[in-house]
Amino acid sequence: MKKSEKWVGEDEAGKRLDAWLAEQYGHLSRGRLQELIQEEMVWVDGKKVKPSYRVRGGEKVIIEEPELKKLDLIPQNIPLTILYEDADVVVLDKPKGMVVHPAHGNWDSTLVNALLYHVKDLSGINGDLRPGIVHRLDKDTSGVMMAAKNDYAHRSLAEQIRAHSIQREYVALVHGVIQENLGTIDAPIGRSKKDRQKMAVIADGRPAVSDYEVMERFQNYTLVRVRLRTGRTHQIRVHFSYIKHAVVGDPLYGSGKKHFGVTSQMLHAEKLGFVHPKTQKYMEFTSPLPEYFQNILEQLRSYER
Predict the structure, then answer these.
(1) Neighbour-count burial for 138-162, b at 16+ CB within 10 Å, e otherwise
(2) Residue 100 neighbours by CB under 8 Å, 6+ apart
(3) How many structural domains is the chain composed of?
(4) Is residue 283 part of a domain?
(5) What is the span of the domain harbouring residue 239?
(6) Could you read off the pLDDT tens digit of each residue along the chain, which spans 305 residues?
(7) Total-model pTM
(8) What is the crossing angle of helices 30-38 and 17-24, to 10°?
């Protein structure tokens, strides 16, 4: 992690923080800077602010910038399940275990490497390491996600995400038996004060709301469908850990113990709906539960018989 600080000049007062940072850090796109601000990697006089914050003369701005390895992305012939593709968007079914874009520890064999081989044309808004990536799924979260093939489509899809109009539903197996059939977890999420690698429910976090319904109950587990009203980092994993029903297998927010032989979260992005950037028609895509997930559910059901 590289930390740097800069001071706002008196003649620069009134500028949006993200725009001011883009002038100071020419190697970072404005979109990437907005992400760093939202991920609480930027402080103004020691305080967290929004990308739209207007800077004032004399303020000290600190930015924590993850060190990126300089490399040329190589298209790789990695199998992809493409659910839909046209000139603007591509919708795919991401497998468990695949990293979305290159980062520390995973410089190749990512979804981006595969997209560059199979799709080729991708938007450039998110820079060289994340072409086409509008949103992400964690490495071990499987399911449906989308990518943009040009900047116009990228801006449209990103705006829908910001407006919380994207329809996203997940299926998760969680610990314990949830008694109510329907519920809402409304708890703000921010970077953990104790561990910068984790997110947590904190009083001054960003608003985060997850609606859920119980699909099936087992002796010590519950299968839930979760609808996201917001899209915070690790939102479902953090929220269910917060209510003492951590996602099974979650190594970061759960017990860290093996369950059913899995060592990563049992979380699947089942449904994704959005308005097409060009046609303005609503489109919806679904992904079936992975085979390993279905097998574990069958195993649990067999215990109940």
Answers:
(1) bbbbbbbbbbbbbeebbbbbbebee
(2) 94, 110, 111, 112, 130, 133, 136, 137, 139, 145
(3) 3
(4) no
(5) 167-270+290-304
(6) 678 888 998 888 999 998 889 888 876 777 778 888 888 889 899 888 888 899 998 999 999 876 554 446 788 899 999 999 999 999 999 999 998 876 656 567 788 888 888 887 888 766 656 788 889 899 999 999 999 999 899 999 989 988 889 999 999 999 999 999 999 999 999 988 888 779 999 998 889 999 999 999 999 999 999 999 998 989 999 999 999 999 999 999 997 677 888 889 999 999 999 999 999 999 999 999 999 999 999 999 998 76
(7) 0.78
(8) 120
Sign of CA dihedral 232, 236, 238, 240: positive
Residue 195 belongs to a domain: yes
Q: Is residue 275 part of a domain?
A: no
Same domain? 157 vs 173:
no
Name which of 82, 125, 99, 88 is nearest 285 in CA terms: 82
Which residues are identified as catalytic?
138
Residue 88 lies in a domain: yes
CA separation for the pair 19, 52 (Å, rounded): 9
Nearest to 114 by CA among 76, 148, 147, 87: 76
Are 261 and 295 part of one and the same domain? yes
